[in-house]
Predict the 3D structure of the following.
Amino acid sequence: MIDRAGPDGSMSCPSRACEPGVRILGVMRPSGHLAYLQMPAVVDQRFVARAKAEGSPERRFRFTGDCVENSCPQWTGERCAVADEVVSTVVVAIPTKLAACPIRRTCRWFAQSGAGACRACDQVVADVGGTATYRSRLAGPC
């Protein structure tokens, strides 16, 4: 485990639900890969309403915010189950250099699983609908 955290000891979750106060980490491309924003934009209630009016925002965007650990159904008591799932199931065809990511320094997935989580991260869609989501397999959103 890599020991990294923000100045206050906080960690960032790279896959939060769309709600006021979180930030947009990136936009999903038609290719199925995430285009990271250089500076994640804060989401307000107006954005949430507009995004939800067009369907599940988590299908089109990835959001980041504080990792809430025990308040998250994905937390095992010691680690993030989503990070473990991502590293074990997402196939990365060719190991490449890591994409520029604005939260890597404080990212829970990176701290927990290192570069493997980063290489797979841009392929994670938080909500693809139906039963084929990590949400349904792992008990709920972060």
